[in-house]
Amino acid sequence: MSSALANGLAGAGGGLIAQILTYPLQTVNTRQQTERVVKKGLDVGHGTSPSGNQRPGGTLVIKTEGWGGLYSGLKPSLFGTIASQGVYYYFYQVFKNKAESIAAARKVKGLGDGNVGMISWLAVAAMAGCLNVLLTNPMWVLVTRMQTQTQAERNIMERKRDALLKEASENSATASTLLVKLAELESSKPKPYGTLQAAGEVYSEAGIRGFWKGLIPTLIMVCNPSIQFMIYETSLRSLKEKRATNKHGVKQITALEVR
C-alpha cells in the first residue's frame, strides 16, 4: 500500500470517529447560526419568538425532535467526512512526497540541505486543501441543508400558529374553527427529509452551480489548515532532529507529541 493511500485511509478513519462524537454539537451550532425567526414581535431581551418558544439549543432540539434531531443529516455528513478527510490526507501525502523528492534532488545538486522549507509546506497543504474543497463541497451543501431543514419547517409552523391565534382573537365568530386548525397544526410533524430530496431542491434552485455554493469563502478558509500543517511539519522536523542527537533519551516521537 502506498504511503498516500495509507495516509488517506487513516485520515478518513480518524475523521469518521471524530464526526460521530462531535456531531450533536455541530448540529446545535448550525441551528443557532442559521435560525430564521420572525422579526415582528421578537422579544430580543428574552430571546424568544412571537409564539414564546426559545431559540434553538441542544435541549430544545431534543424536546421538539427527540434525540434523533441531534443527528439530523448524519449519514451524508459521515460520507462527506470520510471523503473529505480521505481526499485531503491522500493528496497531502502525494504533494508531500513530491516536495521531499524535489528537496532531496536539490541537495544532490548542492542547493539546500535536503529539507522542505516552510513556504513549500504551506503550498503542499494549500493545494491539498483546495482539491479537497473542489471535490467535496457538494456533500457539505447537502449536509447543511439537511441539518437546517427541520428547523426551517418548525419556524414555518410557528408563523402559521401565530397567524391562526391572531385571527382567532380578532374574529370570535370563527374562533372555534381556527382552534381546530390550530390543533391539527400542533399535531402535524415535519416530513422526512432525505439526501435525494435535498439534492433535488439544490438543483432546482440554482442548477449544478448550487452544489458549489459558498466555494470562494471555503477556499479562502483553506489558509487555516495550511498554516497549521506548515507549522506542524516544521515543528515535527525540528523535534526529530533534536531527538536524533539525543544519545541516551527516547528517539521516537510519541502520538501525544505529534498532537
From TrEMBL:
Listed GO biological process terms: nucleotide transport; transmembrane transport
Membrane-spanning ranges: 116-135
Main location: membrane
GO cellular component labels: membrane
UniProt keyword Metal-binding, yes or no: no
Membrane topology recorded in Swiss-Prot or TrEMBL: Multi-pass membrane protein
Top-rank lineage group of the source organism: Eukaryota
Solcar repeat residue intervals: 2-98, 116-238
Subcellular location: Membrane
Keywords: Membrane, Repeat, Transmembrane, Transmembrane helix, Transport
PROSITE patterns according to UniProt: SOLCAR (PS50920)
Family per similarity comment: Belongs to the mitochondrial carrier (TC 2.A.29) family.
Protein name: Uncharacterized protein
Organism: Chenopodium quinoa
Lineage, opening ranks: Eukaryota, Viridiplantae, Streptophyta, Embryophyta, Tracheophyta
